[in-house]
């Protein structure tokens, strides 16, 4: 079996006196589509910051693509779509094409001319997310769900192997959430590994291949069917408060 893409071992993390992560052992294998859930303040964003190298574990180790994280340099293999990505105001002066082009910034520097190959990458990424008709529109004029697609395209231009998404469907209506998950499914079929932080447990369990539940430590890591069969008491223990798991019939 190939090495995991992400391997966290005995990871602890403190913000000053506050422990945000405690003895986290977590692996992501190639081809996984992991839904990361947990209560507010459970440490999901902190875990992402560690994977992106924005914070270092207080103790414990992290390997990315088989390398210790401090030696890992192939940043293009990691794509990131943040929670606040879809909050551009109307009239924000950048077109869809310009926003997606920013995904090549680490390769190009901001002001270099685009080569024909760069343009091809940009158009292919926009096509993959089904937004070709919107290339010259202002990003601020798109809906939250459409903006989120553009941010996926921006992540796709660097040809990432793992995309991390932090609550990408906040503020997106139910119908478009479903379409968004369909897009994630397609990307996953094209060999892109996904780590999705979400509070939308019902929709996620229909699409993810594994579910991880984080409340300081990893309380559950298994397949969505097992997650759905957890008892109310088990879920309440994980979440620190009662939780009704609402799943949607398909
Ligand atoms: N910069 C910071 N300084 C101090 N404490 C922080 C900081 N960022 C987060 N925390 C604390 O660390 C804990 C984990 O926070 P984190 O944002 O990782 O949780 P989360 O699971 O992403 O929450 P949510 O679902 O609400 O986004 C919380 O107790 C939070 O208050």
UniProtKB/TrEMBL annotation:
<dbReference type="InterPro" id="IPR003593">
    <property type="entry name" value="AAA+_ATPase"/>
</dbReference>
<keyword id="KW-0067">ATP-binding</keyword>
<dbReference type="GO" id="GO:0016887">
    <property type="term" value="F:ATP hydrolysis activity"/>
</dbReference>
<keyword id="KW-0813">Transport</keyword>
<feature type="domain" description="ABC transporter">
    <location>
        <begin position="6"/>
        <end position="240"/>
    </location>
</feature>
<protein>
    <submittedName>
        <fullName>ATP-binding cassette domain-containing protein</fullName>
    </submittedName>
</protein>
<dbReference type="InterPro" id="IPR017871">
    <property type="entry name" value="ABC_transporter-like_CS"/>
</dbReference>
<dbReference type="InterPro" id="IPR003439">
    <property type="entry name" value="ABC_transporter-like_ATP-bd"/>
</dbReference>
<dbReference type="InterPro" id="IPR050153">
    <property type="entry name" value="Metal_Ion_Import_ABC"/>
</dbReference>
<comment type="similarity">
    <text>Belongs to the ABC transporter superfamily.</text>
</comment>
<dbReference type="GO" id="GO:0005524">
    <property type="term" value="F:ATP binding"/>
</dbReference>
<dbReference type="Pfam" id="PF00005">
    <property type="entry name" value="ABC_tran"/>
</dbReference>
<keyword id="KW-0547">Nucleotide-binding</keyword>
<dbReference type="InterPro" id="IPR027417">
    <property type="entry name" value="P-loop_NTPase"/>
</dbReference>
């Amino acid at each position: 079996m190939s090495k995991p893409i992400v391997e966290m071992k005995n990871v602890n993390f403190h913000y000053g006196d506050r422990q945000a992560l405690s003895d986290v052992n977590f692996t992501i294998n190639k081809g996984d589509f992991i839904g990361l859930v947990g209560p507010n303040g459970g440490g999901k964003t902190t875990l992402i910051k560690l994977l992106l190298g924005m914070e270092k574990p207080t103790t414990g180790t992290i390997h990315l693509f088989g390398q210790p994280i401090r030696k890992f340099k192939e940043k293009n293999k990691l794509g990131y779509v943040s929670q606040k990505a879809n909050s551009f105001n109307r009239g924000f002066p950048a077109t869809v094409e310009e926003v997606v082009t920013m995904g090549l910034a680490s390769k190009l520097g901001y002001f270099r001319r685009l080569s024909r190959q760069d343009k091809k990458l940009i158009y292919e990424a926009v096509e993959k997310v089904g937004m070709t008709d919107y290339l010259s529109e202002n990003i601020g004029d798109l809906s939250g769900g459409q903006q989120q697609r553009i941010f996926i395209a921006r992540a796709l231009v660097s040809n990432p192997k793992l995309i991390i998404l932090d609550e990408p469907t906040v503020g997106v209506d139910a119908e478009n959430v479903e379409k968004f998950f369909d897009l994630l499914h397609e990307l996953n079929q094209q060999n892109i590994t996904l780590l999705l932080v979400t509070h939308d447990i019902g929709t996620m369990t229909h699409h993810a291949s594994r579910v991880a539940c984080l409340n300081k430590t990893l309380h559950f890591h298994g397949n969505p069917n097992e997650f759905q069969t957890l008892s109310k008491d088990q879920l309440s223990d994980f979440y620190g408060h009662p939780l009704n798991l609402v799943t949607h019939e398909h």
